[in-house]
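ARCHIVE CARD
Drawer: 12
Card no.: 0347
Subject: one protein chain, sequence and derived structure
Cross-reference: see card 0346
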Amino acid sequence: MVDVLAIQHVPFEDLGSLGDELGRGPFQVRTVEASMPEFESVDLLEPELVVVLGGPIGVYETVAYPFLEGEIAGLRVRLARQLPTLGICLGAQLMAAALGASVYRGDPGKEIGWSALRAGDAVEACPAIAELFAPGVQVLHWHGDTFDLPAGAAHLASSELYQNQAWSVGERILALQFHPEVTLVNLERWYVGHACELADADVDVVRLRAAARRSVPALSSAARSFFRRWLAAAIPMENSPTRARSS
């Protein structure tokens, strides 16, 4: 089995459809809350894959949320060794910070809603992401912060409002500012959990839900293919240390 660690920042932002895809393969998933004391004892070098999920806080808010410093430090060591790591939204920002890039509030403001991605100038560095550029596929954006590209990173995607929506380093490190993993069922938790943010951003929940109902079916199909292709490239089964130990 391939050991996967999912790092959560709020319980309702989970693996979503990525969890479903992992469940179809030889993956053993455990989840840890970054803000809980047990996270301090987690060695981020041990899992064969680490997935860093989203959350409503800023990478730069380390005074208010001190655990962020330890999380960034652990990711810095893991990324230096080029171990398979996937970051989504806040996770992508934490990975950028771990590689020395600046993370900050974006001038365009909140980007919350559904829209198509635009291919970046080095999109060929991650062939799997082509699945998310398919006609009719829109992804969910839900952020107000952005980041500079880390040194040496390949620029994979942008949106109408934000230039840096995805980047990679080699085949094993991938960071996504957007959310390909969302499902209709779990988004209902997001609407409640992020109610204050939605109200402050003057986002109509009824319209956001309707857009999700139109967009999720195509995204779910594309995301499954995307996750499957990226996992196959990032973690070749024949090279898996855990698989070798168990055989």
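Annotation on reverse: Helices lie at 16-23, 67-80, 90-98, 184-193, 195-200, 205-234, 241-246. The CA atoms of residues 47 and 63 lie 28 Å apart.
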